[in-house]
Amino acid sequence: MSKTVHIESAAQFSSLLSSSRIVVVDFYADWCGPCKAIAPMYEQLSAQLSRPNIITFTKVNTDTQSQVAQSYGITAMPTFMIFKNGREVSKIRGARAQELSEAVKKLAAEADSDGTSGGFGEASTSGGPTWRGAELPRGYSDITDQVDIRGLDLLNSDSELGGVRALFDSAAPSSLGSGKGKGKAIGAESKSDWVESDVDEQLMLYIPFQSTLKVHTIQLTSLPPKSEDDDEIPMRPRTIQLYTNRAHNLGFEEADDIPSTQSITLASTDWDEKTGTAKVELRFVKFQNITSLVIFVVDGDGEGEKVRLDRVRIVGETGEKRDMGKLEKVGEDS
């Protein structure tokens, strides 16, 4: 019996990308001669190497699932794509059986050797997967890799600590598991891998994207120190306001004058104590065609004067690529 999964919807495909460590995809058409020629070999690989939640072989009919095919720029059949931890690692155009076999078997061997590395709650050892502090909602993927790192902007952050890019580091927070919130310094300037607000408890984070997204959930990780010896313990965010599709970051006064797309109040029980992560579930209908997000941390949960963030993860679905060449950063540097 064939173990190959025939994709019947974009949601089904997104779910597989988030639930299986390696996903092999055969984009084909019923009328395509080379597709039929290589199909038996593909099925043989599937029968030999398929393993639940580790290696999944799929087939996408480009005529009936044109949305999925267009999302990945498929213009010739057959085209084979291989994903590891939700990210593309190989793309093979044409019925090149040997190249396909070698690529799949190499990744299968890596899956055997690296065990659960790069999975939920763990740091990446291969550079591909992204650490997450919470499980993904069913049917959606971690799309943090769609963040345009060059255009990030963060207002009111302590310049002595980490910069805005630290929030999107693919590795686990260095403070995780220490219980003290004092992780290792990173980078050439030996700065921390988290950010804190500066003169008060507010932060204004601007996140542009490389694609038009459907954003379902935002995962925020905050790991303030637990030691009672610290005089100024930063707080976790409490009130958060979200603004969509802005051309640049907002000023704090400007944010007060503009209605937010959604306002969220986090309780202390919303934070997972093991990972320091809160899942901010959005009103999905309002976050369907998103090119940028502004996350405004209005205040923190506690009596402190500063707010801390360690990681931000974006969860949802990707859409069409944007032309990033015309983007310009406006506003202060973080």
TrEMBL record:
The entry's protein name is Putative thioredoxin
Residue ranges annotated for the Thioredoxin domain, each copy included: 1-109
Single GO MF annotation: protein-disulfide reductase activity
Enumerate the residue ranges of region (Disordered): 112-137
**PITH domain mapped to chain residues:** 132-334
UniProt entry keywords in alphabetical sequence: Disulfide bond
Query: Could you say which protein family the record assigns here?
Result: Belongs to the thioredoxin family.
> Which SUPFAM superfamilies does the annotation name?
Galactose-binding domain-like, Thioredoxin-like
Q: Which organism is it from?
A: Lepidopterella palustris CBS 459.81
Q: GO CC annotations?
A: cytoplasm
Q: Which domain of life is it from?
A: Eukaryota
Presence of keyword Ribonucleoprotein: no
Q: NCBIfam families, from UniProt?
A: thioredoxin
